[in-house]
Amino acid sequence: MENLKSYIQENKDRFLEELFGLIRIPSISSLSEHKADMVKTAEYWKELMLKAGADRAEIMPTAGNPVVYGEKIIDKSLPTVLIYAHYDVMPVDPLDLWESPPFEPEIRNGKIYARGADDDKGQSFMHAKAFEYMVKTGNLPCNVKFMIEGEEEVGSPNLGKWCAENKELVKADIILVSDTGMIAPDIPSITTGLRGLSYWQVEVTGPNRDLHSGLFGGGVANPINVLSKMIANLTDANGVIQIPGFYQDVLDVSMEERTLLGKAPFDLEEYKKAIDVKEVAGEKGYTTMERTGIRPSLDVCGIWGGYTGEGAKTVLPSKAYAKISTRLVPNQDNEKISLQFKEYFESVAPDSVKVEVTPLHGGQGYVCPIDLPAYKAAEKAYEKVYNKKPVPVRSGGSIPIISTFEEVLGIKSVLMGFGLESDAIHSPNENFPLEQYFNGIETIPYFYQYFAEMMKK
Amino acid sequence: MENLKSYIQENKDRFLEELFGLIRIPSISSLSEHKADMVKTAEYWKELMLKAGADRAEIMPTAGNPVVYGEKIIDKSLPTVLIYAHYDVMPVDPLDLWESPPFEPEIRNGKIYARGADDDKGQSFMHAKAFEYMVKTGNLPCNVKFMIEGEEEVGSPNLGKWCAENKELVKADIILVSDTGMIAPDIPSITTGLRGLSYWQVEVTGPNRDLHSGLFGGGVANPINVLSKMIANLTDANGVIQIPGFYQDVLDVSMEERTLLGKAPFDLEEYKKAIDVKEVAGEKGYTTMERTGIRPSLDVCGIWGGYTGEGAKTVLPSKAYAKISTRLVPNQDNEKISLQFKEYFESVAPDSVKVEVTPLHGGQGYVCPIDLPAYKAAEKAYEKVYNKKPVPVRSGGSIPIISTFEEVLGIKSVLMGFGLESDAIHSPNENFPLEQYFNGIETIPYFYQYFAEMMKK
User: Given this model, what pLDDT does residue A262 score?
Assistant: First the structure.
C-alpha cells in the first residue's frame, strides 16, 4: 500500500468537499422537523457507498429513521468487516455560542468546525474514503459491509430489532466502529471497555398541594427534604453505592490489570484545572481513572421541585423530582439493576410521602479483550501511522448498541476512535482536526490488511 | 350599642358594594404594571376614611407604594387604637383555575369570591365599617388611627422606615390587625404567636461546565449529589435541626402552656386527609400543632439543577441550587440565625465543590401575652358575637411587620382575624364568607368598648 499516502494527498480537497456535503444536511434525530433531512442524509450515504465501489447499497426502513446498508463481497472465503456508524447528529443549541454556523463547515486553525465534524460524520466518513482507496487501488483484502443508522443520538431505539431481522445480511467477523476518541494526537489509544447505564426518574409526593411553609412547616414532610435524604443515603461517606446487591455482579479487576491501566498517561493536576475543581471525589481506594473506567457510579443528572423563581417564596411543595443514573461495569446487568433500584428506592420511602420510580433508559456495558485478533490488528494499524503502540483504555461512557450487537449478532466490536477530548462533541463549536481526519483514513486500510493476515493464520 | 345589629342589617348592601369597589382595583404589589392601581386603591381608602368620619386622611409617600394614614381624635385622654392593614393583594395566576374573574367579586354559596376578598381587603374593610358605625351612632369610645400600607405581600420593605419617621403620628396604646384566621366559624380563636423567618438561596458549583456523566461520573463530585447530602445533614433522624447554636435562644414552652395549647380542637385524621398524607412528620416529642406553632422548622422551598426536561439526558451538572427557609420561634433572632446558617453551610461544603449562601429574607417572631388588656378585650368581643370564648393559638406563619411594630414603635399588636382555612388566600378562588364579614363588623365595636373600659381601670 505504498500509494496510500499519495492517494490521500491527491484527493484531499475532494475528501473534504464530500464530507462537507454530508455535514451540511442538518440531520438532528431528536427534532421531528428534521425528518426530511434524515432521509436526505441516508440518500447521501447510499450514493457515497456506490461511488466508492460498493456492489450494493440500499436504504432500509425501520420504525424510525432508516438504516443505510451497503456491501462489497469480493470472496466469501475471506473475512468480513462490518462498519457501524451513525448519520444523525445532536441538536445545536445554544446556537449563540457557535463561532460559525453549525451546518456550514469551516476550517480554522487546522480543524473542521461543524456539528458532526467528529461525531460521527467526520469519523464515519474516514471509513468511506478508506474503502474507496482500497477498492480503487486493488488493496481490499476483506469483504466489507456498512450499517449506518440514523438514531444513535436518541439511543438507537430501532437498530436492535433491525439487526435481529437482518442477522444473515450483516453477518461478519468483526464490527469496526469509529465513534470514540484517543488520549492525545501523540498518544494513540483504543477504547476496550464501555460502561453500561441505568437511568430513572423519581417522583416524591408529599401533601396534595403546595402548602404555606409557615402554617405547615415542621409538621408535614417536605418532599424536597425527603428526596434529599433519600439521595444522600444512596451512597455512603466512602462513595460506595448502597443499593442492596448493586455490586453483586461486578467483576473485580485484578491488581495486575489495574497496574496496566494505570500506565495510561494521566495528570491529575491538569484534570482538576481543566474542570476547575479543587479536589476530585469518588469511591475510596480507586484512582480517578479507575473510578470512571472500571467502577460503577451514581449521578443525579437533574433535580427540581418547589419554587425556583426569583426571590423568596415560602412554600412547602407538593412534589419533588430527580433524574438519577448509574453507570455500570461489564457483567452488571442493567435490567437487573434497574429493578433493584426501583424496589429499593420505593421501599425506603418514609410513610409521610409517596415515591414513584420510572426507569427511563438502560444499556449493557462492553469489554473488548485485548488478545482478540481484531484488537491486535487495530493496535498494529495505529502503530504504523502514529509510530506508537496504542494504549488500551476503559471509557466511562456508554454506547449501549455495542453490547446489543454482541447479544443479537454475536459479533465483537473494535472501537477505533480518532476523536480528541477537545473536539467538543455534543457542544457548541464541535470540531475535528484535519490531521486526525487524514490519519484516520490512512490507519483504516492497515487494519484491513493486518486483520486479513491474522485471520489467515 | 343595641342598634349595632340593625345598623349592619340596614346597610348590608352598601357595605358590600363599597367593598366590591375596593376589590375591583387590581392592586397587585409584586407586578410593576399595577403601579397606577396602587395609587387608585390608596385614594379609595382615603375617601373611605373621610366618609366614615375621620377628621383627617392622607396619602403619604414611601420609597415604594404609599401609606394611607387617617385618624379621628376625640379626646387625648382616651386610649388610642391603631388599625394596621394592607391594600395590596397577591398575583392571581394560574388564572384558568378561577371560577369567576378575580377582580370581579361574585357572591356564590354565601361567600364573596375575589382576589383580596379575605386578604386583606375584606378583613380591613370591616374596620372601616365598624368605625363608621361607631362615629355615626355616637358609640366611639377611643381615638382611632389607620395605617394602611400597600406592600405587605412583598414583605413590607418600606413600612419600618415610615414608622420610624412617623412615630409620634401613629402613637397608640394598641395595634389592631385583622389579617389572620380563626379555627372554624363555630370555634373563634385569636392568634397569639407568629413564627419568625430566615430564608436563603444556596448555590453549589462542581465542575466549571456540565460534564458527560459517563466519562466523568464517579470521578468528579456531582453538585446535586453533594447538595442533597448537605440538605440531608441539616436535620437528624428525629427532625432536630443540626445548625450549631440554632436552638440556643429558643425559649422552651412550659408543660403547663403546652397542655393549654393542646386544648385547641385538632383532628389529626382530618388534617392528614385534607392534605392527603398517610403520616405526618416532624420533630420527635412534639405534637403536630406544637411542631408548627412553638417549634422552629426547616424547609427546602425549592431545588433545581442539571437536566429537568423530558427523557434521559446523561449529564454531570456544573451547578445545583436550593431555596432553604427556617421558621423561627419568638426570642430567636433571624439575623443571628441567618449568619449562623451561612457560616455553617459554607463551612461543611466538601473541597470538591464551591458553596455560596445568599440570605434572601428574614423577620422576627412575635408573641401576644394572653393577659394583655387588649387581648382580654378581644376575647370578650368574640365571646359577645360568637357566644364562645376564643382559643389562643400560635400560628406557624410569619407577619414580620408585626415584630417590627414592637421594635420600632414599642406597641403590641392584637391579631383579631376572621379568615377561615377554606378562604384560599394567595390561591385561585380566594373567598370570604358573608357571615364572617358581617360578624367581624359586629365584633370590632365591642373590642373598642371593652378596651376603653379596661384602660379606664
Answer: 86
- Average pLDDT of every residue of chain B: 95
Domains, chain A, ordered by start: 4-194+365-456 (3.40.630.10), 196-250+296-363 (3.30.70.360)
Q: Cα separation of B2 and B442, whole Å?
A: 11
Beta pairing, strands A196-205 & A354-363 = antiparallel
Distance between CA A435 and CA A186 in Å, rounded? 11
The answer, for A396 touching chain B at a CB cutoff of 8 Å, is yes
Chain B segment 331-350 residues within 8 A of A by beta carbon are 350
Query: Nearest CA of chain B to the CA of A293: how many Å?
Result: 8
Which of B296, B48, B34 lies closest to B154, judged by CA? B34
Whether residue B296 and residue A197 make contact (CB cut-off 8 A), yes or no, is no
Out of A323, A327, A350, name the one closest to residue B218 (CB): A327
Q: Cβ A233–B235 below 8 Å, yes or no? A: no
Q: Residue B313: phi, psi to the nearest 5?
A: -110, 125
Residue A264 pLDDT grade (very low, low, confident, very high; cuts 50, 70, 90): confident
CA distance A28 to A17: 21
Q: Which residue, chain included where needed, has cell 377561615?
A: B420
pLDDT of residue A251: 85
| 3-state helix/strand/coil string of A340-408 | HHHHHHHHCCCCCCEEEEEEEEEECCEECCCCCHHHHHHHHHHHHHHCCCCEEEECCCCCHHHHHHHHH
Which residue is it, cell 431528536? A30
CB contact under 8 A, B231 and A212: no
Residue-wise pLDDT for B420-450, tens only, equals: 989 989 888 999 999 999 999 999 999 999 9
User: How far is Cα B432 from Cα B106, in angstroms, rounded to an integer?
Assistant: 11
Question: What pLDDT was estimated at residue A58?
Answer: 98
Q: What is the pLDDT of residues A154-199, one digit of tens each?
A: 889 999 999 999 999 999 999 999 999 998 899 999 999 899 999 9
Segment A315-322 mean pLDDT = 95
Chain-chain contact of A323 with B313 (C-beta, under 8 angstroms): yes
Q: Which residues fall within 8 angstroms of residue B102, CB to CB, at 6 or more apart?
A: B26, B92, B95, B114, B115, B428, B430
Kindly identify which residue of chain B lies nearest to residue A329, measuring between CA atoms.
Answer: B214
What's the DSSP call for residue B96? G
Give per-residue pLDDT as tens, A380-431: 999 999 999 998 888 888 788 999 999 999 999 999 999 998 999 988 899 9
Look at phi and psi of residue A251 and say left if phi exceeds 0, alpha if psi is from -120 to 50, else beta: beta
Taking 80 as the threshold, does the pLDDT of residue A376 lie above it? yes
| pLDDT tens string B222-253 | 999 999 999 999 999 999 999 999 999 998 88
pTM: 0.82
Give me the residues of B, 61-90, that contact A with CB < 8 A: none
Given a contact cutoff of 8 angstroms between Cβ atoms, the answer to whether A378 and A190 are in contact is: yes
**ipTM greater than 0.85, yes or no?**
no
Residue count of chain B: 457
Q: Rounded distance, CA A381 to CA B443, Å?
A: 95
CB contact under 8 A, A214 and B352: no
Element (H, E) at A175: strand A174-177
A299 prior amide bond cis, ω within 30: no
Give the angle A218-A221-A223 at the CA atoms, nearest 5°: 130
CA B38 to CA B255: how far, in whole Å? 47
Interface check A258 vs B, CB under 8 A: no
Q: Which one of A179-188, B341-350, B357-366 scores highest in mean pLDDT?
A: B341-350
Q: Please report the pLDDT score of residue B29 as a whole number.
A: 94
Q: How many CB atoms lie within 10 A of CB A150?
A: 28
Interface test with A, best of B286, B303, B426 (most A CBs within 10 A): B303
